[in-house]
C-alpha cells in the first residue's frame, strides 16, 4: 500500500469517526444548513490539503 493510499484510508476513517460531530457543531454555529454544510466540507478539504491528498 502506498503512502497516498494510507492517507486516503486514514481520511475515510476520520470522516467516519468525526464527520457527524463536525456537522453538528457547524449546524449549531451557523445561521443555515447550507452554511453548516460548507463548513463541514471545508474542514475535510483543509485536512486533505494538509496531508497533500489533493
What's the story with the biggest beta sheet? none
Q: What structural class is derived from the secondary structure elements?
A: mainly alpha
How large is the count of helical segments?
2
H-E order: HH
Rounded mean pLDDT is 84
Verbal overview:
It is a single chain. The protein is mainly alpha-helical and 54 residues long. The chain has one domain. 81% of the residues lie in helices and 0% in strands. The model has no long low-confidence stretch (mean pLDDT 84).
Q: What's the SSE blueprint?
A:
Blueprint: H1 3-28, H2 33-50
Helix pairs in contact: 1-2
In a nutshell, what does this entry contain?
It is built from two helices and no strands.
What are its keywords?
mainly alpha; single chain; 54 residues
Amino acid at each position: 500500500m502506498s503512502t497516498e493510499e494510507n492517507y486516503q484510508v486514514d481520511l475515510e476513517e476520520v470522516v467516519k469517526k468525526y464527520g457527524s460531530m463536525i456537522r453538528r457543531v457547524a449546524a449549531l454555529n451557523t445561521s443555515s444548513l447550507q452554511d453548516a454544510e460548507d463548513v463541514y466540507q471545508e474542514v475535510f478539504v483543509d485536512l486533505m490539503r494538509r496531508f497533500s491528498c489533493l
